[in-house]
Amino acid sequence: MAVGACGPLPAPLAAVGSTLVPKNLSATPGLAIDTACVVSGVELCFNAIDDNCNGVIDEGCGLRSGPIQMTVAWGSAPVDLDLRLTIPSGDTVSDDTPTITGFRLDHDCPRDGCGEQNYENLFATDEPPLGHYVVAVKLADPMGHISPVKATLSARIGSRSYRLALEFAKVGDTRTFAFDL
Fold it and tell me: N or C, fewer C-beta in 10 Å, the chain?
């Protein structure tokens, strides 16, 4: 996978949503939610990991962020994973509805011409409402790739980031991450 180094984070971004504190974190049974962050140096692009442990995922890489940011990345395999976020109102941000009040899907691979840097990113454009959130990642089309398909899902909520290692075996497999604000 082609990966580039990213630049430093602009100071105002780190403070956005920093007062948000998620509760009741949960995931698909068998998935671990990694809350520990190990500084691995410079932020790398399109790996959905907060490499420098500043609470922002892939900053300086052209991905948009906000008080909530969800990013899924999956190497160079030409597959279609779908990232969705259901917010407290019941509305869902997805490739079918990339913009709803306060949230936006920023990038949708392979639809957006991703090459070997496959990722999807969505974020809150405003202060998010309180309530229950569900993030879902689904294997929509393996596009000839032999399973399993491996991916990383990272969630920025306020000033903290969380990471889940995902694996998909067949079309329709869905992995979830949920939390309350």
Answer: N
Are 77 and 168 in contact by the 8 Å Cβ rule? The answer is no
Q: Is the pLDDT of residue 172 over 90?
A: yes
Nearest to 36 by CA among 171, 164, 129: 164
Does a structural domain hold residue 6?
no
**Cα 50 to Cα 150: distance, rounded to the nearest angstrom:** 18
User: What is the model's pTM?
Assistant: 0.85
Which residues touch 172 (CB under 8 Å, ≥6 apart)? 138, 139
Residues in the chain: 181
CATH number at residue 122: 2.60.60
Query: What residues make up the domain containing 161?
Result: 46-180
